[in-house]
Amino acid sequence: MLPNFDINFLIFGILPYAVLAVALIGTIARYERDPFTWKTSSSQLLRRKQLMWGSVLFHVGIIVLFGGHLIGLFTPIWVLDALGIPYGLKQWVAVLLGGTAGIVAFVGASMLLHRRLFDPRIRVNSSFADIAILVALWLQVVVGLGTILLTLEHMDGSEMVRFMTWSQSVMTLQVNAWLQVINVHWLYKAHIVLGMVIVAAFPFTRLVHMLSIPVRYVTLRPGYQIVRSRRRRPLEDRRRAFDKLKGTARRPAAPTPAE
Fold first, then answer.
1. Hey, what CATH class is 7-219 in?
2. Which one, of 138, 154, 149, lies nearest residue 187 by Cα?
3. Which of 96, 106, 130, 160 has the most CB atoms around it within 10 Å of its CB?
4. What are the domain boundaries of the chain?
């Protein structure tokens, strides 16, 4: 029926736009309809073991990887040419920095995934989305580390230019963007597909907390904390505290004249 149809066109030419639409519309809808679910849902109160090291390693590694991919893929090629940065040098920086951050993220994600799956208290309080997105991130890091071995075979930066061209062509709505990645190794393609799966799942998981930067908490903190005690105090102490708060301290009652 479609003799010239290529599955690469569907995956790398059409699917990216569907993924971006789902991510954008889904994120806005969740924020508007379910704002109280917009949180990290931390399990620290259930058990802190493995959480601190795993969380710190994972977040440091994944932030470096995310920033590196963002800068590496969407920096226009003409900027590299104008600055005189060789493609091979950029490739070495990506391998060394990305490889180090990938290992750090892998160790952290493995600790968090082990905790999530094998700690009974954490497992019973974890939703399907909690486990699925962590597994997807772990797999993405593993596949990303695998692509480094392929990259070492062509350090001239030619493959890097392909992915930069594809990413920027997708964002500028060029129809034939998919042709840039049609002949790359299947492991690279798996890395891209897993990335799109994670982006599409973004609005429906705890990953939305990435968009909640606590700027107001850092700059506009009131400087005090309200603490409500469960201790029951005598009624008179409560009255004195209330009067003192209003600035009108209660005067002691006059003695009753003796009969």
1. mainly alpha
2. 149
3. 160
4. 7-219
